[in-house]
Specification:
alpha/beta; eight-stranded parallel beta barrel; 11 helices; about 55% helix; about 15% strand; binds erythose-4-phosphate
């Protein structure tokens, strides 16, 4: 399973990229706002760090405005046009924009997917990626991972090429469960990447090896 990092913080993206564990980035308006920087400037910097799909979300709610926003945005960084993925909110207008952008050869990631039926609609509209939200479903007492499983099953049976991004990931168990199900991608917050690489026995093991080596060197 491919991993994307779900952040707009360039230091976190650089650290995740340096480890070689991620091949894409997802952002959303909340994550961009947290950085307090110009939207296009941040996305351009991210695209300079990671050579893979970088999701940038539109703010408009009407299809023609979403398309205009997407094209204006991509025109600001023509050198990265093949890596920029336009993230669209799931709604009727979002689907129209998805169809138009797909016809223009611009990749889209349809986000805020909370049912398999929504995922099917987004795939039919031409989405390159769909993002079902696991954590936010868990938060309201619904099994988010069951949605990933259902979407993966449907896409497999139907031979749908749209890639599924397990989004709203909250912990390492979400990541490994998504991988086990066969999900294409999980987009993971940086703190979850750190949780994934941390194990107390690994830390103790490193400490013990070094201590034993010190003792051997002193002999
Ligand atoms: C997906 O691309 C979204 O940016 C993200 O996964 C939302 O996660 P949250 O529910 O932790 O805000």
């Amino acid at each position: 399973m491919k991993l994307f990092v779900d952040t707009a913080n360039v230091d976190e993206i650089r650290r995740a990229a340096d480890m070689g564990v991620i091949c894409g980035v997802t952002t959303n308006p909340s994550l961009i706002a947290k950085e307090g920087r110009d939207f296009a400037e941040v996305i351009k910097e991210i695209a300079g760090i990671v050579d893979g799909p970088i999701s940038a979300e539109v703010i408009a709610l009407e299809a023609d405005k979403m398309v205009e926003e997407a094209e204006t945005f991509i025109a600001k960084m023509p050198e990265y046009k093949d890596n920029i993925v336009i993230k669209l909110p799931f709604c009727e207008e979002g689907l129209v924009a998805c169809r138009i952008l797909t016809e223009k050869d611009i990749k889209t990631n349809v986000t805020l997917i909370y049912s398999a039926a929504q995922a099917v609609l987004a795939a039919n509209a031409g989405a390159a990626f769909v993002s079902p939200f696991v954590g936010r479903l868990d938060d309201v007492g619904t099994d988010g991972m069951a949605l990933i499983e259902e979407v993966m099953d449907i896409f497999e049976v139907q031979g749908i090429e749209t890639e599924v991004i397990a989004a709203s990931i909250r912990n390492p168990i979400h990541v490994t469960k998504a991988a086990r199900i066969g999900c294409d991608i999980a987009t993971v917050p940086f703190n979850v990447i750190i949780q994934m690489l941390t194990h107390p026995l690994t830390a103790i093991g490193i400490e013990r090896f070094l201590k034993d080596w010190e003792g051997f060197e002193k002999k």
